[in-house]
Design brief:
The protein is of the alpha/beta class and 266 residues long. The chain is 52% helix and 16% strand. A 7-stranded parallel β-sheet has the order 3-2-1-4-5-6-9, with helices on both faces. A two-stranded parallel sheet has the order 7-8. The longest helix is centred in the middle third of the chain and has 29 residues. Bound molecules: NADP nicotinamide-adenine-dinucleotide phosphate.
Length: 266
Amino acid sequence: MKSVIVTGASSGIGKAASTKLAGAGYKVYGLARSFDKLQEMARRLANFVPVEFDVARPDRFDKVLDPIIASGVFGLVNNAGYVEPGAIEDLSMESIRAQFETNFFGLVGVTKKVLPTLIAQKEGRIVNVSSMAGMVSLPTIGMYCATKHALEAFTEALRIELWNTGIKVASINPGVIETNIHSVTDEKVSQLKNSRFAKAYRKYLRETPRGLPASIVADAIHDAVSSPKPKYRYLLGSAKEKAGVRLRRIAPDDTIHALVARRVLE
Ligand SMILES: NC(=O)c1ccc[n+]([C@@H]2O[C@H](COP(=O)([O-])OP(=O)(O)OC[C@H]3O[C@@H](n4cnc5c(N)ncnc54)[C@H](OP(=O)(O)O)[C@@H]3O)[C@@H](O)[C@H]2O)c1
């Protein structure tokens, strides 16, 4: 039985991916801080091993990850992450660093722990859950976008460095997906009511469209782990979201920036 590590397995996309992979016969190590939620999943799912883990605590990586890696690992799904909403002027350096620690540096650290084993066994999968926010940058969540842009650069370089090693690297780029991430964001935005962007925050949240179900992303993650020829990029979203990402690549900067400023800030 092949083993897959999934970070951020207690909720949303990670939970759906863990359920899908465990159902497909993989042994899934589900990692997250909320151990109670993972234990609840373990009661329902065969082949699911709950592991308490904080991706922002690199001092504990060896202790938690070494035994898992020693028991054999085929896949790593780097999924843990969160959105710290706020315009750049509204976020403290501390919160910006914390967001990078979870969404980027923690992910890099976990990947580096698993890499030597995958390289030695000449096979494996690394699936990074990025976002459409890794391909466009939007006001009021710019620092989240920055973490995902950093992830894009990391994933692309990693894929090329692992060319012909037997290890396949995939990037998952969802648009809006129905998960807990939005309620957490909502709560944080309510603390920013004195900002010059208060109206934009309210508008951004009010207008956050209903997204696709997490199962769509779970299916893509399953494909990236199990297909003999996985895609490099899984762009998952509404037709409008996909068009927005493609338009960003070809439209002049001034046109795009003016359009987004009008839409989000006015
Ligand atoms: N939902 C969307 O619209 C959307 C769109 C594009 C990309 N994404 C990406 O998808 C990924 C999953 O998000 P989601 O939408 O499924 O959100 P979610 O429902 O809030 O789930 C986030 C998961 O990440 C875990 N997590 C957060 N901080 C962690 C930490 N320090 N250490 C370990 N685990 C941590 C959470 O578990 P604990 O709190 O138990 O630790 C939870 O399991 C994120 O990387 C997000 O950026 C989401």
